[in-house]
Amino acid sequence: MNVPELNPDEPKMRAGVTTARIEVQEYTRRKPLDDAGKQLLTRYFMGAYFPSWTVPANWTTVDQKRSDFMRNYNGSLDTQMSTRKELNRLTLQAMSEMIKPDYHPVVRYNAMMLIGDLNAQEYSLGDNLPVCPYHASLDVMLKTLEDPKADDVVKVGAMLGVLRHARFAQSVPKPAGEAVTIADIQRMTKAVEQVITSKPTEGRSPDAHQWVQRRAMDLVQAFSGGYSSLLSQGGNQSASGEIRQSLEAIAKSLGETVEDENADKSLRIDAALTLAAMPTDDGVKKSFDPNVQIGLVAKLAAKAVDDDVTWFNDKIKEMKMGGSYGGPGGDMMYRPAPAMEYGGYGAEEMMSPDGRPSKPKKFVNTNPPLHSLQLTFRRRVKSDVDALKVSLVGSDGKLEDPRSLTSGLIRFVPSAEEQAAIIDLANAMDEVVKAADAETDDNRMGNAGPGGFQTSTGAMDPYLPYEELAKNVKDKQAKVERLANKLAAGAGVAATDAAADAGVPSADMPFGAVPGMGPMGAAPAGGPKGPAAPATPMGAKP
């Protein structure tokens, strides 16, 4: 079907398109759908609006067209249910065609994203109605994930859509026929099992594969409470049995990922978080050794902080030597702040009324690259340590009774002595986070005399507060490393590299010798190479 008079990209047709848009919105928002309305929806969307996405000239704006559709035709104002149902049907039909390999990748990706964004019901505060994703779209997305030949460009969008359905699965009430069934959960679990246990094939992007794996782990976490209830209650024996088998395979694969010290650190952390959210079902318990996993997580926590401190020290050293910091915003060369002289304030301003010296004005760091560097360091430490702590003891905050926790590897350990050791490690990890979050004293300057006042007219030294920040974090990390090595040794896991390779730091280290830290130079093998955020595929929501 081709309806050129409704082509939204043709300037000569602007008046007709505007009129049709208004008529469509009358149906989506107020007017009950009749035969004339059905014909209008078909002519407008199937004959002109959706086909315009596939025109080469529009490839760079397909994401904007998708946003326009959700805002103007499928948003919170579009509550006429009969029209929504028909428009969802037409949209799914059109997008199911546009995700095929015949179309440009950007068209295929946005088509799949729209399939996942469709709602059968919008949130309504007055009627106490939750968002309800369009159930019919789930089948299309699951078929994509189940297809080993499907391209990454559509698998990414499909995984995001399936994850969205999983997150809203337990919200009620829902319109008739829109609820997620046990059979749906079985298919979703089987699909994520295939994703999590798979390896990137030749010609496929390892980064995209890993990204889809991490979203699959998010889905397992989203269903964690439901899995526990489903397996404990029994219910559909056939479906629950297959779900249990998939969870056992997922747990085994996650354990292998945590054990793989050559794997990406963020992937190992996500695997640990997902493993910690698994139900404590007997079959799942047998799929991995919790003591080994806990030892590995403890070791990973100690090494992650050590790597972050080493990276931070190396960057400070580079900046002190006149190098640049290639952080957010690009490479920026440090330029020292102007010298602070008493005369700069005026001699009388440095004296209080009683004749005693008054405190100098507060020093403000005028080095944006250094400020950006220390923020990145803080975020890295807090993100890594907090995530790994949650993987150990969950986020419920009920450590006095581990049996009451809904997540955390501690639930899989029956021994009270072992649980106490895990809690001690979790408390030590909290101390690291607090140290990374502590405010720095920006008033400290080089050549300080009694009382903290600068006694020379040299340039301010902006590095001292951040060198102490790194030292404080490293000091707290030492306790984490000691407790981690104790847990790791009990599980037969080798000690952390930092403990094995400890040496005397070089004399030009930004701050003096730190126990347990190796010589300055390059970051440890496999350590972070610079501040980096997880890559998000085009247009995808994190």
How would you concisely characterize the structure shown here?
It contains 19 helices and 4 strands. By secondary structure, the protein is mainly α.
Q: Describe it for me?
A:
- This protein has 542 residues and is an all-alpha fold.
- The protein is 55% helix and 2% strand.
- The strands form 2 sheets. Strands 1-2 form a two-stranded antiparallel sheet.
- α12 packs parallel to α16 and α14 packs antiparallel against α18.
- The radius of gyration is 29 Å and the shape is globular.
Give the topology, please.
Elements: H1 14-29, H2 35-49, H3 62-72, H4 81-98, H5 105-117, E1 119-121, E2 132-133, H6 136-146, H7 152-167, H8 182-197, H9 206-222, H10 224-233, H11 237-259, H12 265-276, H13 282-285, H14 290-320, E3 324-327, E4 330-333, H15 342-345, H16 368-393, H17 416-437, H18 464-490, H19 497-500
Antiparallel strand pairs: 1-2, 3-4
Helix pairs in contact: 1-2, 2-4, 3-5, 4-5, 5-7, 6-7, 6-8, 7-9, 8-9, 8-11, 9-12, 11-12, 12-16, 14-16, 14-18, 16-17, 17-18
Mean pLDDT over the residues: 80
Indicate the radius of gyration in whole angstroms: 29 Å
Q: Enumerate how many helices there are, as a single number.
A: 19
Alpha-carbon distance between the termini? 37 Å
Q: Which strand order does the major sheet show?
A: 1-2
Which stretches of 5+ consecutive residues score pLDDT under 50? Answer: 327-350, 442-459, 498-542
* Main beta sheet: 2 strands, antiparallel
What overall geometry do the principal axes of the alpha carbons give? globular
Q: How many runs of DSSP E, i.e. beta strands? A: 4
User: Which series of helices and strands comes N to C?
Assistant: HHHHHEEHHHHHHHHHEEHHHHH
User: Which class do the helix and strand fractions yield?
Assistant: mainly alpha
> Which range does the strand content fall in?
under 5%
Assign a percent range to the helix content.
40-55%
